[in-house]
Every structure is written in structure tokens, then in C-alpha cells.
Amino acid sequence: MLPGEQTARRRFFFALANACTVASIVLGMTAIMLALSGHIALAAGLLLGCIAMDALDGPLARKFGVASPFGAQMDSLADMCSFGIATPIVVFQWLHGDLPTWAIGAACGLVAVCAAIRLARFNVSPKDGRYFSGVPTTLAATVLAISALLVTSPHPAFAVGIALLALMMVSGFPYAKLGQLRRVPVWLWVLPVLCLLLVSVEVTFMILVCVYLASGPLLWAVHRRRPAGIA
């Protein structure tokens, strides 16, 4: 499963990178059990742990030169478990009783389907160094997990928002990678800080999410209008 030289050092880092992937699966399964037991906040916190593990396994494998097809497949399966199954179950349990069951059931089911499509498409598509094609499953899971932690009285429109987030995962809209946010003018960071101070954490978070979701169609429109041959 580990290509290349089979040294003890390489085996160790190969095991370490894959241990992060396995940890993501374990945290996702634990989140499901906690959510079914009514511990929504703990379950949402474990989903954030899944996101942290997902952010570690790939960079570790690349840094120590132990990336492999096996690791890539494990990562994709772990993402489906944590972000395509555990996340919508936690969200369903969070919203159950506050919104119509059919509405949240349909929205959460859409998250699972779109996550599977998004992950499969990512595995077979050429990679763009600048943009994601559609909202990444990890980012969608982050939004949903933080929402479950912050929002205590969800509005009925949440079901529509969840469905929209799911559809944005399989859209072809370009979304900036997090590294590109460093190029955002400093003065733009003042706006969310002011909103945080003057309004609330929940409202600030929702505004930031809406701005990011809207950025994909806006970037797409800008690229469409740009004359051919201009980068």
C-alpha cells in the first residue's frame, strides 16, 4: 500500500497520515451516536474534529513523501462517512422538532447525495490550483457544524439554506481557496469585526457564509465576461 522505499521512517509517517484519516471516521461515527442520544453540541464539536483530521492527513502524507492511491481512497471514504453521512444526521437531529420533518429530511438527504457526487467528481477531475469547483464538502460540514453550535432557535428557512448549500457543492461555480483570502484587502476584514461587535456572532457568521456562497456565482460571471486570452 505504501509505494517506494519501505523504510521504518516512511512506514511510520504513512501510518500516521492514515491514522488521522481513521480518526476522522471514528469521530464521525461517535458524532452520529451522540446526536442520536440528544447531545447535539458534542456531536457538532466532533464534526469539527473530523474537519481538523481531514486537514492533517493529506499535508502530512505530502510533507513526508508517503502519499499513495490507498491514502487517497481512504481519505475520500472517510470524507463520505464524516461529511456525507455523519454531518446530515447531526443536522437532522439538531433541527428535529423545530422544523417539519419532511423538510429537514429532504434537505439532509440532499447533503448526503451531493457530498457523494462532489467527492466522486473530485477524485476523477483535474485539479485547479486557484479555485474549488463547487463548495468543498469540508467547508459545507464546517458551516453546518458551527450553525448547530451557534443557532439555538433555527428559522424555517434553514431547510432551504441547507438544500442550497448542498447544491452549491455540486455546482460548477469557482470558489476561492482559503489561501487566497490572504489577498483580501485589510479594510474588508473590518466589516465582519464591526458586525461581530455591534450585532451578534450568529448574524456575523451567517453573513460571512452568504457572502462566500454568493462569491462563486459572482466569480463565474466575471470569468464569463472576461475576453478570451486574458488571464
Q: Key terms for this structure?
A:
globular; two-stranded antiparallel sheet; 73% helix; 8 helices; Four Helix Bundle (Hemerythrin (Met), subunit A); 231 residues
CATH-scheme architecture: Up-down Bundle
Low-confidence stretches: none
Provide the helix percentage: over 70%
The radius of gyration computed from the alpha-carbon positions, rounded to a whole number of angstroms, is: 19 Å
Order of helices and strands: HHHHEHHEHH
CATH topology, anyone? Four Helix Bundle (Hemerythrin (Met), subunit A)
Q: Count every helix, treating DSSP H or I runs of 4 or more residues as helices.
A: 8
Largest sheet: 2 strands, antiparallel
Query: Regarding CATH, which class?
Result: Mainly Alpha
Distance between the termini: 40 Å
Mean pLDDT score: 86
The CATH superfamily name is CDP-alcohol phosphotransferase transmembrane (TM) domain
Q: In order across it, which strands form the biggest sheet?
A: 1-2
Number of domains: 1
> Pairing-aware structural class of the strands and helices?
mainly alpha
The count of strands amounts to 2
